[in-house]
Give the backbone structure.
Amino acid sequence: MLDAIRWDANLIRRYNRAGPGYCSYPLQRQFHEDVSSFELLHALRESRKARRPLSLYVHLPFCNSACFHCDRLRIVTQDRELAARYLHYLQREIDLISCHLDRQQQVEQLHLGGGTPTFFNQEELRQLMAHLRQRFTLLDDSSTDYSIDVDPRSASWSTMGLLRELGFNRVNLGVEDLAPQVQSAVNRQQSLEQTCNLVEAARTLQYRSINIELTYGLPQQTPESFAHTL
């Protein structure tokens, strides 16, 4: 069996390097200074002329504590003023982009990621979603995919109820691993009960999709411990 494997040394060398996060689209490396403001406005104009449906991604980069395995763009802080200031500038950017689009372009996909979007308090989340609805045509039916990342350590039934009220129908719960030694190594202590509590809330509130985010290859992780987490 092994004799039948052909090892391509050039191919191995080509991919033997760090790559971009596969979960981000467009990829981070596609954002660079060679893309001019003119090209951006041209793309927005073409989208408006074709009245294409829209997908929006809103990055909320704040976290209460740092998970050592995470390589996302994030700000670890307890300073609520930073979050309020970020929200102010985010709303300005929403205004700058939305004025080049048509209200007939419906938002079919929306995702709030981070960081931890639930770092923001309920009033701030209401404010953000109200501003998005003012500038874009968000729908209120089951045809959409409106999702949000949630940290079970800082969310509750009340949080899940608010998010459902704001129009989210998909939720992504960060878990990573349940083994205590792995959680300690990556600085993310999280009980099974915290996760189960939000899963029960999401089912009761009729979220259409519940995603559980797991990570393999973490320090102290073994095939047996990961199988136990699964």
